[in-house]
Specification:
about 230 residues; alpha+beta
Length: about 230
């Protein structure tokens, strides 16, 4: 069998397999309501498979040429930098938390799966797809159960007086079992009063405690503004 030629049946089978494998991972991403969902993952996997096929078989006319040297990995190698730009678009910062890293990583893996399918590495592509689904689905459940308290919030409190400002706020955090990671103070002078901005980096044990803490902080004398990100 000529390694530089492929018939349309095998070409169709590879592209269809790339569509299915990309769709399986995309379905999980879509179900979890992530930026790169069903169609995005299908297109990334299918496009990677097509580029791999083109890289291997698209220049078969030059296989026996003395002028040009065949390198089946050259065109396919450009897929990964391109996926980096797409993945960067899914990464966003929400307060002190960075979101989208898992989605960006999954796009990179999906591109690898497409390249593997295009090159004919069916077993590796299918096995990787199964492992990715297990990682995204099952391990996501494990992460929510055992690492649900890892998110960091930022609270900004603007007070008109600095008397017992930090001690009062710290007492409220301690009462609700909130872990204070760090805090900062910024003081500004106005004509009729001084303004003190206290910024906390917090880790909540329960998400529902945020509302109760904000209400209690607002009830403190001299508090002008409370904001949580």
């Amino acid at each position: 069998m000529d390694p530089w030629h492929i018939d349309w049946i095998h070409m169709t089978a590879r592209l269809m397999l790339a569509l299915v494998l990309g769709g399986l991972i995309g379905f999980e991403r879509e179900r979890a309501n992530h930026a790169a969902g069903f169609r995005t993952n299908i297109l990334v996997c299918l496009g990677s498979a097509l580029i791999m096929l083109l890289s291997i078989y698209g220049f078969a006319a030059f296989a026996n040429s003395d002028i040009a040297r065949m390198d089946p990995a050259r065109l396919a190698a450009q897929v990964l930098p391109g996926i980096g730009f797409i993945g960067a678009g899914t990464i966003m910062r929400d307060g002190l938390t960075v979101k989208g890293l898992t989605t960006a990583a999954s796009l990179l893996v999906v591109a690898g799966i497409g390249l593997a399918v295009g090159a004919g590495f069916y077993f590796a592509a299918i096995l990787t797809t199964l492992l990715v689904i297990v990682s995204l689905w099952f391990l996501n459940t494990v992460e929510k159960r055992f690492f649900k308290d890892k998110r960091i919030y930022m609270m900004r409190v603007v007070m008109r007086s600095r008397e017992q400002a930090v001690s009062s706020l710290s007492a409220i955090m301690e009462k609700h079992g909130v872990e204070i990671r760090k805090f900062s103070l910024e003081e500004e002078e106005f004509v009729d009063f001084g303004k003190l901005q206290v910024t906390f980096s917090l880790r909540f044990s329960k998400r529902a405690a945020i509302v109760a803490i904000v209400e209690e902080v607002r009830s403190l004398g001299g508090v002008a503004e409370v904001k949580v990100e």
